[in-house]
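INTERNAL AUDIT FORM
Audit reference: QA-55
Scope: verify that the stored structure record matches its stored sequence.
Auditor: D.O.
Record contents follow.
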Amino acid sequence: MELQVLITAFMTLFVIIDPIGLAPLFVALTQGASAKHRRAVGLRAVMIAFVILTLFGLFGDHVLEFIGISMPAFRIAGGLLLFLTALEMLFEKRSKRRSEHAEHPEHQPVEDPSVFPLATPLLAGPGAITSMILLIDQADGVPGVLMMLGVMVAVLGVCLIFFALSNVMERGLGATGINVVTRLMGMLLAALSVQFVADGIKALFFVA
């Protein structure tokens, strides 16, 4: 598999999951917890997200086939969904929604936020699930699928690192720095989503 394909896959998942944007929220969700408890919560959330994304990545296309939806059609729909996510990032709606999870503890478990909202919908949300289905569908055979799963593990590993360094990052970047990075990621995601739509249209209308 070409290096460019792996880089594109990594950037797609990295932008969708947004480890940098999740770091301050992780701090808020684990406020007052010990370092050991924070590590346990972060690891558990990443492992749950791994299971969810792997299952959808491997079997999501079979479910679509069962209900009569072609992959090109799903690729177009997925691209549109990713584009909406990009717009939310560009106009700060995503950050506001994530902040609401931290500001309203009644919407999450008091002692352990690893399952909700960290694992889902923040790590393994609709955008990440859609991306995994599309990326694995484009993979070339078993080696390609394993490569895509490896890319996913790498992105989740980066998330775990950011969780561990969340306090340092929050002090270093500040609210303005995190906002700027989120906007830049939104621009990149918008371009990637357009590419998904273009590939889907090509496969749907111009490939016999």
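Auditor finding: record pair retrieved intact. The chain has a mean pLDDT of 81.
Action required: none
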